Amino acid sequence: MKFLMRICFSLLSLIAVTSSFKEIDWKRNQSETGEARLRHKLFHTHYNPDLRPVVNRSDKVTVHLGISLHQIINVDAKNQLMQVSLWIRQAWFNPFLTWNQSDYDGVNQININAKQVWIPDIYLYNNAAADQDGALDRFKTKIVLSSNGRNMWLGPVLYTFSCKIDVAFFPFDEQLCSMKFGSWTYDGYRVDVQMEAEEGDTKKFVTSGEWDLISLPAHRNEIIYVCCPEPYPDVTFTVQIRRRTTYYYINLIIPCALITCK
C-alpha cells in the first residue's frame, strides 16, 4: 500500500513539474514574439508620453481631424441646441515610435492604450452638455500605431452643442449648426489642427424623420484671441439641414387651409 502511495505521489509531482515547465516555456515564447519585443522597445526605453512628439522644440505636431456623422438625435429650438452621434478620427505622427517591420516578425501595426502615448488635447469648443467637457481624449478605444509612426485614433461620441436656431420660416426652414474643434492648451506653433477632408463623411448617416441633411462642409480657421498673441487653429464642421415639410403639410397646413376655406 505504501509502495502504491509513493508511486502516486511521484506521478503527481512529475505532472506538477512538467506543467510548471510548460507554463514557463509558454511565457518565454510569448515574451519572445515580435510584438512583445516591439512593445518593450517602444515603451520601456525611457519614452515619455507627456512630451510632444517632435525632434526639435520649434517643430509642431500636425493633427488631422475628420468626422463621420451617423445621426441627428435632436434639434432643440427652445434651448438653441443640437445633439448628434459621430465618429471622430484623429491622426498624427510620432517620430519616436517607429520601427523596421522585418526586425519584429513583420509586425506593421499594434493597438495601444491612449495613456501609453502623447495625445492631442482637442476639444469641442461649443460643447453644451452638462455631463461632458467636450474633450476628445476621453475615448476608451485604442490607438492604432503603424510602423512609420502614424497614430490613428477613432472613437464614437454623442455631442450636444450650442447652435443658433431660427424658426422664422417654419416649417420651411433650414438650419446651420457648427461644431468647432481645436486644441485647448496648445497654440498653432506647437499643435496644428488640419482638416482630414473638405467635408465630413455622411455615408453611414441614418436619415432623420424630420430633417434632411444637405451638407457637412469643413473649414479651417486661425484665430488670435485676446488672451494670447499666438494663433489658435480650429476645424469647424457645419451641419446644414432642411426641415421635411411633408408631415406639416398633411397635419398642419392642409387642415388649416380647409378650416379657413369653411
TrEMBL record:
Keyword Transmembrane recorded: yes
Keyword Lyase belongs to the record: no
Keywords, comma-separated and alphabetical: Cell membrane, Ion channel, Ion transport, Ligand-gated ion channel, Membrane, Receptor, Signal, Synapse, Transmembrane, Transport
Domain Neurotransmitter-gated ion-channel ligand-binding per the UniProt entry, residue ranges: 36-245
Membrane topology: Multi-pass membrane protein
Pfam families xref list: Neur_chan_LBD (PF02931)
Superkingdom of the source species: Eukaryota
GO CC annotation, single: postsynaptic membrane
Localisation: Synaptic cell membrane
Cleaved signal peptide residues: 1-20
CDD domains membership: LGIC_ECD_nAChR
GO molecular function, one term: transmembrane signaling receptor activity
Similarity comment: Belongs to the ligand-gated ion channel (TC 1.A.9) family. Acetylcholine receptor (TC 1.A.9.1) subfamily.
Protein name in the entry: Neurotransmitter-gated ion-channel ligand-binding domain-containing protein
Organism whose genome encodes this protein: Desmophyllum pertusum
